Amino acid sequence: MSVSWSLVIHGGAGRITREVLTPEQDAGARAGLGAALTAGSAVLAEGGTALDAVEAAVRVLEDDPHFNAGRGACFTREGTNELDAAIMDGRDRCAGSVAGVTRTRNPVSLARHVMEASPHVLLAGSGADRFSAEHGLEQADSSWFHTDERRRQLDELLSADADAFDSDMKYGTVGAVACDAQGHVAAATSTGGVTGKRWGRIGDSPLIGAGTYADDRACAVSCTGSGEVFIRVGVGHEIAARRRFAGEGIQTAADTVLAEVKELGGTGGTIVAAPDGAIAWSMTTAGMYRGRATGAGEHRVAIYADEG
């Protein structure tokens, strides 16, 4: 089967409005989204796989300090960075993920390495860090992930309430979903978690079926938002299941599942790609950093909900 390739990316959803962002932050985020779209699109335009495309796009976002993943990750309550990521191949539902890693420059590539070079799906903490070093992935000093703005956000949070964390999820998560010219889909997600998190908290991003999911029988999904609620709903798998078993279109499935998240008190967004090349995004928030590109020539980025 030959279809027109497609790619969708996100850089987090939340209280993202024109009043909150400075013009410089707006421009920087759009440039980062555009660069990630270009990286992923280049793979797909050359006949590459959806899996390679989502990894390429997310790596760009992980290296961009405008987003909460890799460089620019949020700080824990203790002033450290703990990184989570996942990747999934819709062809055979192989998946890899990592949680609480601290030294890998591009956690999404570590997640792929877990998928391809280990018998496991999810590695966490010091074991995942050790696996990364033993398998030769690029390491980074902890200072690589630090930015002054993320430190300021933690200090502001703690000055208001010593037990607080970023319940608004204002700085969450990056991800990508794609369909390649062969009709295969893939998804990848990466995050620095939430500002002020404690006790090794892990959200939905590295959990297969919650924040990340891909199945050629249905679609690929990457999520961002209130991780605890996304886990309880099983958002990624739920969207795919509605498509498989109820025959819903990806937009309807995404909107319906996010409405369920909202009913349970959560907010956020999701991006979806289907094996026929169809793509969608959905959000219950004021904004979501996002972009989409297709083999038909579409290439656009958006931030605020009213941008369509």
From TrEMBL:
The keyword ATP-binding does not apply. Substrate binds at R201, I202, G203, D204, T224, G225, S226, G227. One of its GO terms (molecular function) is hydrolase activity, acting on carbon-nitrogen (but not peptide) bonds, in linear amides. Gene3D superfamilies: (Glycosyl)asparaginase (3.60.20.30). It holds the Pfam family Asparaginase_2. The active site is at T173. PANTHER family: L-ASPARAGINASE (PTHR10188), N(4)-(BETA-N-ACETYLGLUCOSAMINYL)-L-ASPARAGINASE (PTHR10188:SF6). This is Isoaspartyl peptidase. It comes from Sphingomonas sanguinis.
